[in-house]
Amino acid sequence: MKNLSQLMKQAQEMQSKMTELQERLEANEATGNAGGGMVQVTVNGKQAVKAVKIDPALIDPEEIEVLEDLIVAAANAARTKMEEQVQKEMQGLTGGLSLPPGMKLPF
Question: Is position 39 within any domain?
Fold first, then answer.
């Protein structure tokens, strides 16, 4: 029974650390660029878009599709950067614990 008690304590500690990590990650931001930096999208740790910046030189009604594609590319780049930050933070939290394939934290 001692092992079960210790296991429960570890689970509670992990849950507390996970909550702290989620709060910290939400405050983090990552910015993705496209078009040589002419379009920038910033996301937070929950991958919510926080800001979009567009160089005025790109605003041409005749080429709106190009601008739309650049926004998508910048948003995807920002999301990828944030996912990398989350994975690094999670490795620190789990101590390199190997999870089963397809299982990602936070759940």
Answer: yes
What pLDDT digit, counting tens, does each position of 16-56 carry? 888 888 788 788 899 999 999 999 999 998 888 999 999 99
Residue 70 lies in a domain: yes
Global pTM reads 0.69
Measured between alpha carbons, how far is 75 from 69 in angstroms, rounded to an integer?
10
> What band does 99 get if pLDDT is binned at 50, 70 and 90?
low
Q: How far is the CA of 81 from the CAs of 13, 30, 32, 64, 96, in angstroms? A: 28, 6, 7, 26, 20
Number of structural domains in the chain: 1
| Residue 58 within a domain | yes
For residue 21, tell me if it sits in a domain.
no
> Using CA atoms, how far apart are residues 25 and 85, in angstroms rounded to an integer?
8
